[in-house]
Amino acid sequence: MPKGKVDPANIPNDGLTTRQRRLLPITAVHTGPGKGKSTAAFGMALRAWNQGMNIGVFQFVKSAKWKVGEESVFKRLGQLHDETGEGGSVEWHKMGEGWSWSKKAGSEEDHARDAQEGWLEIKRRLADQAHDFYVLDEFTYPIKWGWIDVDDVVATLQSRPGVQHVVMTGRDADPKLVEIADLVTEMTKIKHPMDVGRKGQKGIEW
């Protein structure tokens, strides 16, 4: 793991000191067909919480009935912060009823509206600097489906005030997101238990 070492040839001529660059907000994208995109994002959020940052998680695709193991942990960490002041505050939001894991009542227009309303809420929070660290989980899908305008997302992220870190997850990230991101990781599947008929397991998938 590199410890802050940089290539002098790649240092931008932006007039900033090394310390100032360390305080810049990070835009991260976790994409690709492999497992672990959301898990890695929640790991980053855990580090951020430990540093006293306020966490906002916004899930865009997983069903509201889908029990994500990290949700229980982060909600308990939020309670711990409220009770003791340790770490940071935590908010966890499911956008609509979820669209990919099971069929839901309502039309595609209903789902698109829910996704757009979720994005507008995030825009408001970014403008208000409501959180220090945002996880936009499965966010690439409503963009891919045309429910959320990628140009609006790009403009909002590039103009957000303060030091608000944002990590987005999901397959098939739009090239425009990849272009503006500071940190991009592509998860590549080599093998998966489901390839040989094994279903999801407790402690592994949830």
Automatic annotation (TrEMBL):
Top-level division of the source organism's lineage: Bacteria
GO molecular function: ATP binding; corrinoid adenosyltransferase activity
Transferase as UniProt keyword: yes
Transmembrane region(s): none
Keyword field contains Lyase: no
Enzyme kind, highest EC tier: transferase
Alphabetic keyword roster: Transferase
Family annotation (PANTHER family): CORRINOID ADENOSYLTRANSFERASE
Protein known as: Cob(I)alamin adenosyltransferase
Organism name: Corynebacterium mustelae
